[in-house]
Write a structure and sequence with these properties.
heterodimer, A: mainly alpha, 2 domains, extended, B: about 240 residues, mainly alpha, 11 helices, globular
């Protein structure tokens, strides 16, 4: 990407984000309740979108080459177990990331 | 500052303080992460100021390293931030008649400020508008400030061993995902998202799987909505 394309990309992300923030206040001013389909999607979508983002964050993991995704697997198992055990977002993120950094910098380098 | 604003400020700070540590840590990592991917500090700092949506800012860094794709970027942003639409619906009443403050309140609506403002039980003598605004502004300020510290530190100490810090993105999504599927009971939805997007990743590859995944997810839920309606509106998670 050129610098101009980067600036356009950021502008689009700002525009998209602000659309999601402002749209309800523009569209639903006269409604007491949003349409049923919107409420339905509001309940159904977040889990699936977050699942998609989990997949997104692993999309470049090399399975057949390099370290075969082993550091990713180990760090993921640790993050998941720690989070199910302690339920502390910050702790799970820090420990998971630090473990991954140690793995790729020292163990699997 | 007038008296109402000052009183609301003190009240707001007491309530946001516990959440600020979390914000500050993630902001710090975000700044470090962006700089470690080769961006000048001004990029993450400006994104924190203008986008002010944590997960999307992390994704933005990864998008900026890919080929230019304005439409895909826009669609992904809408999907990732779709929850704001529902925050907005919930805040319609509360943010009514807020005058000039309303624009700022909507601009700075994030997970944390929504949670605090939506659940706020304020004593009568506290000015609601100012309270909401201080909550938003303190999150925005701390987010940008911690991003800046992370970015400048990462830039100054250019040989920090940051390799692997990109895992923060995965760990953030894993944690939010786990909370959604366990506490939020969105397990069916979550598994659906994983299956559809993994399938699309296998078929379309890492560069082009996001848009098909989003369409797939949307289609599946529109279909289940029709089915549920035909069955007489059974609840669905």
């Amino acid at each position: 990407m050129t610098e101009l394309q980067m600036i356009i990309t950021i502008a689009i992300i700002v525009l998209g984000t602000m659309t999601t923030r402002f749209i309800s206040f523009i569209v639903f001013t006269n409604y007491k309740e949003p349409p049923a389909i919107i409420s339905y999607l509001g309940k159904a979508l977040p889990g699936a979108v977050m699942g998609m983002l989990v997949v997104y964050s692993y999309k470049d993991t090399p399975i057949l080459t390099g370290t075969h995704g082993i550091p990713e697997l180990i760090a993921t198992v640790i993050t998941v177990s720690l989070h199910l055990w302690r339920r502390n977002m910050l702790l799970s993120m820090v420990v998971g990331t630090v473990v991954y950094m140690i793995l790729v910098q020292i163990v699997f380098k | 500052m007038d008296h109402n604003a000052k009183e609301a400020f003190v009240h707001a700070i007491e309530n946001v303080a516990p959440a600020l540590t979390g914000i500050a840590f993630i902001g710090l990592s975000y700044g470090l992460f962006a700089v470690s991917q080769g961006f000048a500090p001004i990029y993450p700092i400006l994104m924190s100021l203008l986008i002010f949506a944590g997960s999307m800012e992390f994704i933005a860094v990864s998008l900026l390293l890919l080929p230019f794709d304005p439409i895909g970027t826009f669609l992904l942003t809408i999907m990732v931030n779709a929850r704001h639409v529902f925050y907005g619906i919930s805040m319609l009443e509360k943010y009514k008649n807020m005058g000039w403050k309303k624009t700022f309140l909507i601009f700075g609506m994030c997970d944390e400020s929504f949670a605090l403002n939506y659940t706020a039980r304020l004593p009568n003598h506290i000015d609601r508008g100012w309270y909401y605004l201080w909550v938003n502004w303190s999150f925005e300020f701390f987010w940008m400030f911690s991003t800046a510290i992370g970015a400048l530190a990462g830039n100054y100490f250019s040989n920090l061993p940051t390799k692997g810090i990109e895992f923060i993105l995965a760990s953030m999504f894993i944690v939010i995902f786990l909370d959604l599927v366990t506490i939020g009971k969105a397990i069916k939805s979550g598994i659906m998202g994983i299956i559809i997007s993994s399938g699309c990743l296998a078929v379309f590859g890492a560069k082009g799987f996001i848009v098909p995944s989003m369409l797939g997810i949307l289609l599946v839920f529109l279909a289940t909505y029709r089915l549920d309606k035909r069955k007489g509106g059974e609840s669905h998670d």
